[in-house]
Write a structure and sequence with these properties.
heterodimer; A: mainly beta; six-stranded mixed β-sheet; four-stranded antiparallel β-sheet; B: 114 residues; seven-stranded mixed β-sheet
């Protein structure tokens, strides 16, 4: 079974609009973390935002916020006021447990294209 | 710039050959992770080292091996290369530890096996 599911292979959004990228996850751990990374066409992976399973508030980093709904096991990324430079692949990833030895489990990604 | 460096940036080699990918973590980071990103498999975790010791193993083939040296840089060795090994190989680093979260990625090494 997929541990991380990103159901939107691609999205087109008008510049300056807000965009929500979906991510659902599956874990039986009580402690886990959820990440979003951005991969522009140049290839590098850029860390955007992190949400821990015990964090009571939704994480925010500038224009990025994470809409964390624990009961629904979803961790959607919201980008406000989208910009042309936001065009990229976006990956949701999960860390299970809080042990120092952890690996990230990745979703398949969503390709976001911002239209001028 | 994440502070993680990887060399080389591009590598083209033939089937059956062996290559070594190198990674230098961010200053102060003790954990190094290797990932493979291919078109058909997506992003796959390969292996993790923490302060010189192997700590976690993912979908790493027996033809692949890695190590982390006393100066904390890491090398990923890929041998008996096959066409399907063509991929982008990322190294990531983190401080390590229970409450540290994000991994910082290097720019990747793009391997093409012909």
């Amino acid at each position: 079974a997929q541990k991380i599911t990103q159901t939107q292979p691609g999205m087109f959004v008008q510049e300056k609009e807000a965009v929500t990228l979906d991510c659902t996850y599956d874990t039986s751990d009580q402690s886990y973390g959820l990440f979003w990374y951005k991969q522009p066409s140049s290839g590098e992976m850029i860390f955007l935002i992190y949400q821990g399973s015990y964090d009571e508030q939704n994480a925010t980093e500038g224009r990025y916020s994470l809409n964390f709904q624990k009961a629904r096991k979803s961790a959607n990324l919201v980008i406000s006021a989208s910009q042309l430079g936001d065009s990229a692949m976006y990956f949701c990833a999960m860390r299970e447990g809080m042990d120092s030895n952890y690996q990230l489990i990745w979703g398949a990604g969503t390709k976001l294209i911002i239209k001028p | 710039d994440s502070g993680v460096t990887q060399t080389p940036k591009h590598l083209i080699t033939a089937t059956g050959q062996r290559v070594t990918l190198r990674c230098s973590p961010r200053s102060g980071d003790l954990s190094v992770y290797w990932y493979q990103q291919s078109l058909d498999q997506g992003l796959q975790f390969l292996i993790q080292y923490y302060n010189g010791e192997e700590r976690a193993k993912g979908n790493i083939l027996e033809r692949f091996s890695a190590q982390q040296f006393p100066d904390l840089h890491s090398e990923l060795n890929l041998s008996s290369l096959e066409l399907g090994d063509s991929a982008l190989y990322f190294c990531a680093s983190s401080v390590g530890g229970r409450f540290v979260h994000e991994q910082y990625f290097g720019p990747g090494t793009r391997l093409t096996v012909t």
